[in-house]
Amino acid sequence: MEPNPRPIGEQIRDWRQRRRLSQMELAGDAEMSTRHLSFIETGRSRPSRDMVLRLATELEVPLREQNRMLVAAGFAPVYRERELDDAGFAAARRAVERIIEGHEPYPALAIDRHWNLVAANAAIMRLVAGVDAALLEPPVNVLRLALHPNGLAPRTLNFAEWRAYLLARLAHEIDLCGDGGLADLLDELRAYPAPPAPKGRAAEDDFGGIAVPYRVRLGDETLSFISATTLFGTPVDVTLSELAVESFFPADDETAEALRRLAAAS
Fold it and tell me: How much of the chain exceeds pLDDT 90, in percent?
């Protein structure tokens, strides 16, 4: 928690503007007067604890930032934040591990709020085998691994499309949460050069615009995936609220068969 947080009024105003809401719109959603909200934003009125949480809920503020808002308003944080190896987090970590292990022989992994790897199943480890060892040194950043020229980029058959999707997704997350660490990561990723075009090309799958496929070479195999993101519902722990599970599903029968064959061979 930062020692000298910005005034609560400034934080509420910044989140309101980030969500592109007028004072009248937010006041209506929070069932308060526009005048009261204006006084809070300008520092003329101090919000109660319940008011801070009500406004944060309407503004869809992440739990970590809600704690910062409470501290700025003179209250104690209400959401716990624990390390991933904390004993009290063991049950949640086991649940994550069951999800990704149960997805075998298809790839699945869990990431934190900065896209750092928390856990991965064996299929993911087969997929990244042979990349630059430096990219696999903890903490492993999944986006860096995907887009770095020494990572999976040279193997990605639709690299331009996949890169554009990942960068757009990261930019959208930054717009929602305003995380400076993610903004720095986005600048780094945008600076990576495009790798030479790989030999061969996966078949063109038509997903009707509903998904961006991920096409990658693994040895002699050409694999094609669609991905899905799983978040935990109604979390009241900061760490759990920031965990996401990324699951990759075969986009064609050939990929499904290749993954089963690779799993059996290993």
Answer: 77
